[in-house]
Description:
Layout: E1 7-13, H1 16-28, E2 37-50, E3 56-65, H2 72-75, H3 78-83, E4 84-89, H4 98-107, E5 114-117, H5 127-135, H6 139-148, H7 153-164, H8 171-213
Amino acid sequence: xxxxxxxxxxxxxxxxxxxxxxxxxxxxxxxxxxxxxxxxxxxxxxxxxxxxxxxxxxxxxxxxxxxxxxxxxxxxxxxxxxxxxxxxxxxxxxxxxxxxxxxxxxxxxxxxxxxxxxxxxxxxxxxxxxxxxxxxxxxxxxxxxxxxxxxxxxxxxxxxxxxxxxxxxxxxxxxxxxxxxxxxxxxxxxxxxxxxxxxxxxxxxxxxxxxxxx
Length: 214
């Protein structure tokens, strides 16, 4: 993707309220260039039925825009089809098999996109286990995780940002890099000029010493 193109990213969760809260955090952040990415917040609904062996078989029963409207208007839009680059799955409700279900859903519309799903922290075997642990934390412990972006909504927000970088880094960040480089060049020039002045002063002293000795 070039700097002039806009990347379309579907962000999907299974809990509408939580997903919109996460998206609000992303939009309030200055870590992404809002002109480089177009978010399409969606909600997935999973259901299950009992298989022949008695095991529950999970399936994707619905996939809608966050306002509840169907996705047809997006899938019928050529710009959406060509600019869609990835689907980001956020929230604690996902299980391992859900990534394949989401992937197959988009394949039905002849869309082959990268599917990125948030993972549990290493100390947990599943997102559900991590969420249960998070719910039992004290307010202070939750705040610490929020500050560090290691659990809860802030973790989901960080996952979105990290997934999209560096292709959608903020213009501000690019400007800061340019300013830093400019400052470094200016500092280097000052040091160089200072060194030249010291060398010239040393040369004058040496010539004066030679004259006196003569």
